[in-house]
């Protein structure tokens, strides 16, 4: 299930794109989070109510496609400010957790300053550059070549390949956003 922090980010991000009714918002959330972190009604609608009480969004009624009226959600100026803050200053978990990072990437273009976008990507790159593994021996991360277990080896090989691809994309995108040929250039 999506947690409160990333659920708030995703709700604000989608409503920043355009007003939506609850069912459409839930469908978009499901498409983004998929089966890995489904969003239940028991999480979504209380989150919407909390955000509404904080002034981050508002709702109004509109005619539905059939005879029933429907509640349409709209982001407020305060909600937009909160979204921009979350995009500029993502929590560490938004950087380290891949699913949460992908949710952050989904809406990062709303943050219009390329230097701020690049800073978020630099944080992810720094996280990925730290030595890590799923498996350790004597406190040292194991590499795929060091484990006899074919399933552990598979996990490590897949993680290495996706990590390499992501780091390459991050470096290229940071360079593009900063107009430099090198990642470290301001």
Mean pLDDT: 89
How many angstroms separate the termini?
38 Å
- In terms of DSSP E residues, the strand content is 5-15%
Number of domains: 2
Largest beta-sheet characterization: 3 strands, antiparallel
Find the CATH superfamily of the largest domain.
Winged helix-like DNA-binding domain superfamily/Winged helix DNA-binding domain
What is the tally of helical segments?
A: 8
Return the string of H and E elements. Answer: HEHHEEHHHHEEH
Stretches with pLDDT under 50, minimum 5 residues: none
Q: How would you summarize this macromolecular structure in one to three sentences?
A:
The chain has helices at 4-17, 22-33, 41-53, 77-88, 92-96, 98-107, 114-129, 150-178; strands at 20-21, 57-63, 69-75, 136-137, 140-141. The chain is mainly alpha-helical and 186 residues long. It has two domains: 4-88, Arc Repressor Mutant, subunit A (Orthogonal Bundle); 113-178.
What does this structure look like?
The protein is mainly alpha-helical and 186 residues long. It folds into two domains: 4-88, Arc Repressor Mutant, subunit A, CATH 1.10.10.10; 113-178. Helix content is 60%, strand content 11%. It contains eight helices and five strands, in the order H-E-H-H-E-E-H-H-H-H-E-E-H. It has helices spanning 4-17, 22-33, 41-53, 77-88, 92-96, 98-107, 114-129, 150-178; strands at residues 20-21, 57-63, 69-75, 136-137, 140-141. The strands form two sheets. It has a three-stranded antiparallel sheet. Helix 1 crosses helix 3 (41-53) and helix 1 (4-17) packs across helix 4. It is globular, with a radius of gyration of 20 Å. The two termini are 38 Å apart.
């Amino acid at each position: 299930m999506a947690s409160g922090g990333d659920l708030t980010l995703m709700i604000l991000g989608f409503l920043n794109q355009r007003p939506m009714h609850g069912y459409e918002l839930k469908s978009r959330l499901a498409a983004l989070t998929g089966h890995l972190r489904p969003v239940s009604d028991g999480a979504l609608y209380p989150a919407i109510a909390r955000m509404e009480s904080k002034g981050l969004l508002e709702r109004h009624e509109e005619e539905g496609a059939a005879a029933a009226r429907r509640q349409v959600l709209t982001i407020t100026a305060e909600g937009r400010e909160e979204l921009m803050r979350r995009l500029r200053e993502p929590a560490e978990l938004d950087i380290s957790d891949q699913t949460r990072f992908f949710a952050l990437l989904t809406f990062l273009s709303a943050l219009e300053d390329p230097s701020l976008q690049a800073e978020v990507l630099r944080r992810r790159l720094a996280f990925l550059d730290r030595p890590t593994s799923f498996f350790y021996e004597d406190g040292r991360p194991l590499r795929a070549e060091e484990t006899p277990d074919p399933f552990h080896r598979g996990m490590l090989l897949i993680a290495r390949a996706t990590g390499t691809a992501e780091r390459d994309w991050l470096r290229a995108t940071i360079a593009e956003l900063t107009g430099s040929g090198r990642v470290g250039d301001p």
